């Protein structure tokens, strides 16, 4: 059996090696390493793919979130609502800009920000909501946009895990995740669904003025060289990374399908295991399975994870500690669902290259380990 990994970038590279090597070599020979044609081309291709007016590439997903908040002129003390069950970057940039992260609990089945709790968390200082499209599905954007409109709030979508996911509004309109809010922020970290060979990120918006401002902030606050209208940052996507991304973007739909097929195989294999809850699908968004995350009920998750690793199966826990219990982000409040999920969830290998032999091994190993754990507990 081919070596099992959480993410198999080596096998994926083999399939596109000729094209990728050529694209990288083109950047090296034309030496336009920064802001070269590869960056512009990728930007245009991503705009068409997402059907969004403006894509602004930057250095990584964390920067994208930070630049989004800077572009919206959020001021120290302003409150930004986000989910308590997410990767740290979302809350980190809020705190870094001296804004106040207001964490709200998530839905136990979909892992998405709880809309009722978002409403309850809105106060006079609230300026923005940052929904996170966790693990590959789009959060309930219709409700979130409605709430934002009623309260005059900005919405920044963290779509680092859900690029390519498609959201359907009640009237049938479809939009890609990250293109619904005022700004979308994504990451091209190698293991993301659209990943490069280093760090990368981008912002999306439909608003031309916001796009100009984002571009300016990402480029030292200048729109004309050496004239600095704002305090900005230096956040660029390298041409080499853009060249790789351009090729991977052409394969993104195929990659999403491969992830979905693996997920469906997992679903079927675990359908009759009462202790396992397979990932819930929401009806209004496609799932692009950045992660395939299970909940383990009635058995000890940590014992299972140890047993699986001993049997040679790589598994990960996203995420073991709730944000509100992290030293840097301690927050009073009630987050029973997040606390429960941090004890119950574990993620299986999920990537574009899982073959039948690997899928059989993974599911058999999990079922076996659970049977053994049942006898022990
Ligand atoms: C990966 C990720 C980020 C940060 O992206 P980087 O490119 O690593 O900075 C932000 N939010 C979420 C939800 C992520 O998964």
Structure explained in plain terms:
This protein is an alpha/beta fold and 377 residues long. The chain has two domains: 9-250, Type I PLP-dependent aspartate aminotransferase-like (Major domain) (Aspartate Aminotransferase, domain 2, 3-Layer(aba) Sandwich), CATH 3.40.640.10; 252-376, Aspartate Aminotransferase, domain 1, CATH 3.90.1150.10. Helix content is 41%, strand content 15%. The protein contains twelve helices and 14 strands. It has helices spanning 9-30, 37-50, 61-71, 88-96, 115-121, 141-151, 208-218, 239-250, 252-270, 301-310, 336-344, 356-376, and strands spanning 54-58, 79-83, 100-104, 126-130, 154-158, 166-168, 174-176, 183-187, 201-205, 222-224, 227-228, 276-277, 292-296, 345-348. The protein has a seven-stranded mixed sheet with strand order 1-9-8-5-4-2-3, sandwiched between helices. A hairpin with a 2-residue loop joins strand 10 and strand 11. Helix 2 packs parallel to helix 8 (239-250), helix 3 (61-71) crosses helix 4 and helix 9 runs parallel beside helix 12. The radius of gyration is 21 Å and the shape is globular. The chain starts with 8 loop residues before the first helix and ends with a helix. 46% of the residues are buried. Bound molecules: pyridoxal-5'-phosphate (PLP). Pyridoxal-5'-phosphate is lined by residues 60-62, 86-87, 89-90, 132, 158, 160-161, 187, 189, 199, 201.
């Amino acid at each position: 059996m081919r070596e099992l990994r959480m993410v198999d970038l080596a096998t994926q590279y083999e399939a596109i090696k000729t094209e990728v090597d050529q694209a990288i070599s083109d950047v090296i020979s034309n030496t336009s390493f920064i802001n070269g044609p590869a960056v512009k081309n990728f930007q245009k291709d991503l705009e068409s793919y997402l059907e969004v007016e403006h894509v602004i590439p930057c250095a990584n997903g964390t920067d994208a979130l930070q630049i989004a908040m800077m572009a919206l002129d959020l001021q120290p003390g302003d409150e930004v609502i986000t989910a308590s069950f997410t990767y740290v970057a979302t809350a980190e940039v809020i705190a870094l800009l001296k804004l106040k992260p207001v964490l709200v609990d998530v839905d136990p089945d979909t892992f998405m920000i709880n809309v009722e709790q978002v409403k309850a968390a809105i106060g006079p200082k609230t300026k923005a909501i940052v929904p996170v499209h966790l693990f590959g599905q789009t959060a309930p954007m219709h409700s979130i946009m409605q709430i934002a409109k009623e309260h005059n709030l900005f919405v920044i979508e963290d779509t680092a895990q859900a690029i390519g996911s498609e959201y359907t509004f009640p009237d049938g309109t479809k939009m890609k995740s990250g293109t619904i809010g005022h700004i979308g922020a994504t990451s091209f970290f190698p293991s993301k669904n659209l990943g490069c060979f280093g760090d990368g990120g981008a912002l999306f918006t439909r608003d031309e003025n916001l796009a100009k401002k984002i571009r300016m902030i990402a480029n030292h606050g200048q729109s004309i060289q050496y004239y600095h209208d704002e305090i900005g940052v230096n956040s660029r996507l390298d041409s080499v990374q853009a060249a790789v991304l351009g090729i991977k973007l052409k394969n993104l739909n195929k990659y999403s399908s491969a992830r979905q097929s693996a997920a469906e195989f997992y679903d079927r294999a675990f359908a009759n295991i009462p202790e396992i809850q397979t990932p819930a699908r929401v009806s209004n968004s496609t799932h692009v399975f950045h992660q395939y995350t299970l909940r383990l009920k009635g058995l000890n998750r940590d014992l299972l994870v140890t047993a699986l690793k001993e049997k040679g199966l790589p598994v990960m826990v996203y995420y073991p500690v709730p944000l509100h219990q992290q030293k840097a982000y301690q927050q009073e409040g009630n987050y029973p669902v997040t606390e429960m999920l941090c004890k119950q969830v574990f993620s299986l290998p999920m990537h574009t290259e899982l073959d039948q032999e690997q899928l059989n091994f993974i599911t058999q190993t999990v079922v076996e380990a659970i049977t053994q754990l049942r006898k022990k507990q």
